[in-house]
Amino acid sequence: MRPTNKRILDAAMQLLVKKGYRATTTKEIAEKANVSEATIFRNFKNKQGLVEALLSQHSPNRGSILEQTEGDLYKDLLHIGTCLLEELEHRKDIIKISFREPAMFQDVINHVTEYPQSMKQLLVDYLKTMGEKGVIQTGNEAEHADVFMSIIFGYFIHRLHLGDRVISVPQEKMLEHSTALFVKGISAD
């Protein structure tokens, strides 16, 4: 990506998070990025083009997550949970934008939910494999995946909106403790 486009996208992200889509103008984005408004129009066509470029900036490799599993339920779920939380953290600005003006950003919401949906399927497939090995109870893999992901999402959304004012457990400790509790609840023995 050209440095000019990166500056424009960074400025757009900062302003969209702070002010929202409607209140942010291309003129303000241009001023913040230290470019002319014409440069924005030439490279992105319009404000919606900027949002589309922001959405396409990052596409994580979900396949590598399963490649790094070891067959140990606790370690694997800790790894999957950590990857999910890291990706949510990486996308937090886009998520904030989607919360700020959800009616205007159906495309953003669809984009934001693609990764968690694919992670859920990855988790369901992993849990089915562990069920076939007799490690966990079988038959409720989708529900188990929903519960595990709800733990991760709940923590992320809480921290996004409230910081550490209510839940002060550090991320690593939260992941370790909640994963241990979850594993205990779904284990076959």
Automatic annotation (TrEMBL):
<dbReference type="Pfam" id="PF00440">
    <property type="entry name" value="TetR_N"/>
</dbReference>
<protein>
    <submittedName>
        <fullName>TetR/AcrR family transcriptional regulator</fullName>
    </submittedName>
</protein>
<dbReference type="InterPro" id="IPR050624">
    <property type="entry name" value="HTH-type_Tx_Regulator"/>
</dbReference>
<keyword id="KW-0678">Repressor</keyword>
<dbReference type="GO" id="GO:0003677">
    <property type="term" value="F:DNA binding"/>
</dbReference>
<feature type="DNA-binding region" description="H-T-H motif">
    <location>
        <begin position="25"/>
        <end position="44"/>
    </location>
</feature>
<dbReference type="InterPro" id="IPR009057">
    <property type="entry name" value="Homeodomain-like_sf"/>
</dbReference>
<dbReference type="InterPro" id="IPR001647">
    <property type="entry name" value="HTH_TetR"/>
</dbReference>
<feature type="domain" description="HTH tetR-type">
    <location>
        <begin position="2"/>
        <end position="62"/>
    </location>
</feature>
<keyword id="KW-0238">DNA-binding</keyword>
